[in-house]
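Retro notes, structure queue

What went well: the backlog is down to a handful. What didn't: a couple of records were mislabeled last round, so from now on we paste the full input next to the output in the thread. Example, using DUF4164 domain-containing protein from Roseibium aggregatum:
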Amino acid sequence: MPDTGSQAGGTIDSALKRLEKALGGLEVSIQRRIDADRSLNALQEDLQRLGEDRSHLAAGLDKAEARAARLEDANRDVSRRLVSAMESIRTVLDAHGG
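Corresponding output:
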């Protein structure tokens, strides 16, 4: 007659091994998920910082463009005044035989 006690013990041992293996796989999956969530949070923080940097850079660019426009206006004004001054000097030189 077969020993049903040892068959039951073998079945329980086998079930426990499968359960331990399944729990081990679950722990690995949970750790991967935690790591993925950390990575996602880090990426979201990086994205937020990049957005803030972009805003600051855009504001700086707007200021630089406004300053460049003012400098171009000043440059045109100076150029116009120089041309006017040179014409005045020529007129004076021409009037005095120079």
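Agreed that this is the format going forward. Reviewer comment attached to the example: Residues 41 and 47 are 10 Å apart (CA to CA).
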